[in-house]
TrEMBL record:
A GO cellular-component term linked to this record: plasma membrane
Entry EC number(s): 2.7.13.3
Species of provenance: Sporolactobacillus inulinus CASD
UniProt domain Histidine kinase: residue ranges: 41-258
Subcellular location, principal: membrane
Protein name: Circadian input-output histidine kinase CikA
GO MF annotation terms: ATP binding; phosphorelay sensor kinase activity
Bilayer topology annotation: Multi-pass membrane protein
Keyword Kinase included in the entry's annotation: yes
Length: 266
């Protein structure tokens, strides 16, 4: 039982050891809580689309729907829910590979402008269906960076999907600027924002801001931990700025110097 804290009286080595054990117990307890929350989340998240798939497929195969319009509507729900399932399974798969340290990146010189254009295309419909304007502000000549195209696309997709998911009205802006020292990519939204006290935790696995809010918006609590991990594997850093009710900006920074130094050493 990790709730039992040691009573620490002395201030010597034994006392310090006692404090360390208490800290360790507290972090184990936190790990257990997030794990438990994760499995209950994941079961819920898996069950919901499956219930829809079964329900609508059954109605269709039982011949209970006459109008073509309605049939189309049901098929479209089946399609959307299967896409949701696919995302969830992909996230889980990536996460388990990361845990085993099995992910190998295919590093090459790449143009982030192309990543942005491909990814934005994928979320266009989603943004339109919420009447959000999806804006690009891409500097003309941006230095190439070293990265893995597929992973970079997933990073940006996660950020864009979040931006759209947590924004009710306004816009989502993707900005790319290249300077001598770094290439900087940011995704800004005019959404609900993230409370200041939650900011240090949002990149943690399974972490979601407010449980009630998480249920309402869907998602798995895995997106940002995958973002951070992938960006760091590609020698980048992530930062977040947010103001409640105003919006959120995620910024990815890829420094050039460091890579050139390292390449020079090879
Ligand atoms: P989820 O699948 O729940 O979106 P993420 O790891 O992607 O999980 O994000 C963690 C939490 O951070 C989310 O539950 C959400 O509360 C918050 N969050 C992420 N992106 C945004 C954003 N653009 N605006 C507001 N809140 C966000």
């Amino acid at each position: 039982n990790w709730d039992t804290r040691l009573q620490v009286g002395s201030r010597d080595e034994i006392g310090m050891l006692g404090h360390s054990i208490n800290d360790l117990a507290a972090s184990l307890q936190r790990y257990r809580d997030t794990r438990r929350a994760f499995f209950s989340n994941i079961s819920h998240e898996l069950r919901t689309p499956v219930t829809y798939l079964q329900g609508y497929a059954k109605v269709l195969t039982d011949g209970l729907v006459d109008s073509d319009k309605e049939k189309k509507q049901y098929l479209s729900i089946i399609y959307q829910e299967s896409v949701r399932l696919e995302h969830l399974i992909n996230d889980l798969f990536d996460l388990s590979k990361m845990e085993e340290g099995q992910i190998k990146l295919n590093m090459e010189w790449m143009d982030l402008k192309i990543t942005i254009k491909t990814t934005v295309q994928k979320v266009k419909l989603k943004a339109e269906s919420k009447r959000l304007s999806l804006q690009l502000d891409l500097q003309d000549q941006v230095p190439l960076i070293r990265g893995d195209r597929k992973r970079m696309e997933q990073v940006l997709l996660n950020l864009l999907e979040n931006a759209i998911r947590y924004t009710e009205k306004g816009s989502v802006l993707v900005r790319l600027t290249g300077k001598k020292e770094a290439t900087v990519l940011s995704v800004s939204d005019t959404g609900i924002g993230i409370p200041k006290e939650e900011l240090p935790y949002i990149f943690e696995r399974f972490y979601r801001v407010e449980k009630s809010r998480a249920r309402e918006y869907g998602g798995t609590g895995l997106g940002l931990s995958i973002v951070k991990k992938y960006v760091e594997m590609q020698d980048g850093t992530v930062r977040v700025d947010s103001q409640m009710g105003v919006g959120t900006t995620f910024t990815l920074i890829f420094t050039h110097e460091k890579k050139q130094r390292r390449d020079g050493m090879k």
